[in-house]
Structure formats: C-alpha cells, structure tokens
Amino acid sequence: MDLNQLYANHQRALVNARRSEGPEDRQTYFDLVEYYAKRIGQYRHDAGLPRYHWK
Domain of life of the organism in this record (predicted)? Predict the structure, then answer.
C-alpha cells in the first residue's frame, strides 16, 4: 500500500469515527485511525522521510 492510500484510509477512518452512532463503532474506527497513523509513520521512516509535525 502506498503512502497516498494510507493517508486516504486514515482520513476515511476519521470521517467514519465522527459519523458513528455508538461508542463501540466509534472505538473501532479510532482504532483504525491509530493503526493507519502507525503505518504512515513506519512508511515515512522506512522511506527516510522526516517525521510529520503539526504546526
């Protein structure tokens, strides 16, 4: 999976978490958010890219 796909999946999980109706669904989507964030970080590390920092 390339970086663009990881970003897209991360954003989709964020949207789904916001739209979820119950706490159980919300937690599932936030788990996915965290999962994709870790994969993005690992991808960037492996590619020798700098860490992303919020400004």
Answer: Bacteria
C-alpha torsion sign, points 11, 54, 30, 43 = positive
pTM above 0.90, yes or no: no
Could you tell me the two tokens for 5? 């796909």
Q: Quick one: DSSP state of residue 51? A: P
Q: Could you tell me the two tokens for 44?
A: 């960037």
Give, in order, the Cα–Cα distances in Å from 48 to each of 15, 17, 41, 43, 51: 29, 30, 11, 9, 9
Give the distance from CA 18 to its chain's centroid.
14
Instruction: Identify the helix (H) or strand (E) that includes residue 14.
Output: helix 3-19
| pLDDT at position 45 | 93
